[in-house]
Amino acid sequence: MRVLVTGGTGHIGSYIIHELIAAGHEVIGLARSHTSATAVSALGAKVRRGDITDLDGLKAAATESDGVIHVAHRQDLLPSGGIDAVAAAEFQIMLAYGEALAGTGKPLVVSGSIGSPGWERLGRPATEEDPALPGGDAYKGTLRVRNAVELAVIGLAGRGVRSSVVRIPPIAHSTTDAGFLQLLIGLAREKGVIGYPGDGANLWPAVHARDLASLFRLALEKGPAGKYWHGIEGDGIRFREIAEALGSRMGVPAVPIPADVLMLPAFFGFLANLVTLDLPASNAITRQTLDWDPVQPSLIEDLDNGHYFPAGRIAIP
Asked: Is residue 188 packed enough to be buried (19+ CB in 10 Å), middle (13-18) or exposed (0-12)?
């Protein structure tokens, strides 16, 4: 299969390209710069120069492919327009894919998020059958405004596109992870302690980036249209357990931070609204339908593999 991949030089995208090539697919990586093109080529993919801001170019690239995996995001819009601008731009990208792929039956797999805003009221672990809740103007300035992007992807199933969304957890760990876990480690080095909100009982799902890449491949190859997939290694890990695991390896105490509007921002800064999220979710339907089996080390196991805490840099004096 000739597969167009956007965001192929990012953390998850690079693993996706490797996974697709290993499975025998021809991969075309969209690259907007010489540096990105070099990185895509180094991964073994063919390079197509272009940018997701060029919707006509994106449609042409999608039309020429047998399928698309889209993991790029307009993060460049955050400083000026916030999440509203990012969501609006991504929504237009999904409409462009719809124009290019309508009636073809080709697969389109797009990254989404575990913990769709509004799920906190479910009172149970979220499943793949729980749709993204409608967003709209009433939710501008909040994460829920991006739900329109996931809903647009799922809606393309009704236009003859084999579209689906892979929901990604807050922590995708690997040897090249530069995400939320590294932010927590950096914060602990700064503070001399690692904190957790309140009693730390809130659940955070995680997944190894290699397992996540295999899920994207399976969704591309055989995922039915109009489905959500949960790329998580289990039901979730208590935030307190994550903090304690990090603290034990860094030689710093894990301490509770009162979950109020003053203490959380004082300790966690811009992460304050994220650390309190409680995201129980199930991956049972994903595993059964796509025969997906996470086989890489779990989050806690991966902390001992050397890439988060290189020798000689574990403890904080």
From this structure: buried
